[in-house]
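Lab notebook: predicted structure, single chain.

Context: the supervisor wants predicted structures on file for every construct in the current expression panel, including those that have not yet been purified. This is the next one on the list. No modifications to the sequence; it matches the entry in the shared construct table.
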Amino acid sequence: MKVKCGFTRNFLRGAVLTLLLTMMGVGGEGLPVQAAGALSSENGITSLPERLDKNCRKGNAKLYDECADQIALFDAALKLSVDQGKVLLVSYGAEWCIWCHVFEQHIQGKTSQFKYTFGYPDDPEARDTMTMYEREKRDVTSEARELNAYVSKSFVLVHIEGYASPNGYSVLQLTGADQEFDGGVPYIFSVTSSGRYVASMNHDRAETRRDGLFETYRGYDRRRLLEELNGLHSAALTGG
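Prediction complete. Output recorded below exactly as produced.
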C-alpha cells in the first residue's frame, strides 16, 4: 500500500546537523533563525474531535482520536456542517503523519516557524519533534490570514484516524471515498450534505519542500492550497 506521508527513520540522520545549527542560532542557507509567525490562536475553524481522550494509548495525540468510533465522529461532524451551512472537509490520516500536521498548521494560519511531532510509516509508534523554518521570500501573512478565514467560514473539519482506530477505514467505505483512496495520507476530501464523497485534494500541486544537507522543510503554497480547497468546496455544493 502506498504511504505518501512521513519520513523513514533514516530521515533523522540528515536532520541532526540542522538541529545543531539551530541551537547555535544559525539556519539553513546561512540565514538567522526566524521568530515564530503564528497568527491568533482564535482561528475560528470548527473542527472535530473537540477534545482528545487522554486515556487513549499514550495520550499524546494532537489531532486524531485513535480510540474513538470514527463513524460516530463523522456523523456528528456531518450534522454540524449541515446545521452551520458549511461543507464537511475530511482529513483522513494519523498522528505519525507529518503532512497531516503540516496541513493543520497551515489552515490554522501559522507562518515562518513550525514545530511538528510525528512518527514514521515504518515505525508509527515512534515520536520525534522537529522545528522547521519556512524562510519565505515575501510577506505571506495576508495569505495565511486569507486561507484561515476561508476555511473558517466554509468548512467544518473532521479528523478521521485511519490506522490505530477501530473503524477509520469504514468512514471511507461509508462515504465512497475508498474508491479514490490510493493509500496516501493525509487524504483530504469533501462530501455532500448527505455525506457522499465528491472530490479530494491534489497535494502535489500545493506542497512545497526542501531536502538539503543542512535543513529540511515541509509546507504548502497557500495560494494553491486555497485554490484546491475552493475546488473541494464548490464540488460539494454542486455534487461534483
